[in-house]
Design a protein that fits this description.
elongated, nine-stranded mixed beta sheet, two-stranded antiparallel ribbon, 4 domains, alpha/beta, AAA family ATPase, 383 residues, P-loop_NTPase, single chain, Rossmann fold
Amino acid sequence: MALHRKFIEGSKRRKLAKLKSTKQINNDKPKPVKQVVKQITEKSNKNDLGFILPATTLLKWNIEEIPFLWKGIFPKTGLVALSGSSDVGKSSFLRQFVLHVGTKAKDFLGIEINAEYNSALVVSTEDDAIAIAYLLRKQNVQNLDHSFFSRIGFIFDTEKLLAKLEKALKVFKVDCVIIDAMADLYSGDMNAANKIRNFIYQFQLLAERFQTLFIFLHHTKKGSQYSAPSKDNVLGSQGFEAKMRLVLELRKDSVNPDLRYLCIVKGNYIPESLKRDAMVLKFDENLCFTNLNRSVPFSDLVERKNNKSTDNKAIDRAKELRRSENLSYRAIADKLREEGYDVKKSTVANWLKDYEKNDRIYFYVDPDDMISSDEQDELLPTG
């Protein structure tokens, strides 16, 4: 019997070797994708794994480009952020965007809007209902009838906010939800990456479930104007920035109070070429932005620090221009700004008045050097 078993086992081994040699079976050969997908699907149905979506299904969707709400910038769904220092106009920017979405405008700042519902929700933590009523009226520069704004809603009571948003989104289809502002809703440590990610994840679930876009308004770090626009300027942990598909930074011009710069500092679906230059915008008295159709490199937006060393260099340069070229205070201020110093005419006058008096140097008084009463208030003793 033992001899018979050995014969049978030897026969099986020879047949197996023959099959391998004729490539009827090959343990190293990968299974066809179709077979793998079939197995995944069968196992998914059998073991309740319907959450696995085969790659073949995704490919059949024929998605050739990422769907955008604001073409090339805001994706249709997910999480994005607008950051910037205080009083730069972040809320006004997002409110103007929402007004364009809700009133069926074709574009915002000359860039196409692809809204599906022409509706939006705004969570406002910094401005109450009275303030928003005033701001909406101010930003309605076209004097549109109030009915045009019927699909824009505001939430001011943020207690149990996630539950309120879920309830609203079940019945109110929106293209985007504005969170103004992130720091008011998150009370934990801004540098605790895991806690911030867990907080943001709750909004991500809502965005995925209701296929909409959440736009977070957030602040930049103190002193970030002294460095180039960057995702690293966003306040707090890297955990916040990492959860965003897009991060914009809105920045003031250091000299012209009417200019703003919109910088794409992170964009998962945006070419690198668009992350080097800022869009130049005008911010007017109606709190509205206009695209000036110009761009500047990020490196040109770094504000010079007004430290003592810099001031001394500027003062020496001002004295030189006054002595050698006899320029007016305004002309000197203009010249210094061209050379990178952030100074006003009254500042130059303050620097030079003691210099001219102590050194008994007399110059022809240019009418342009006459200081107005407002500028006189700015003149402070040096030293």
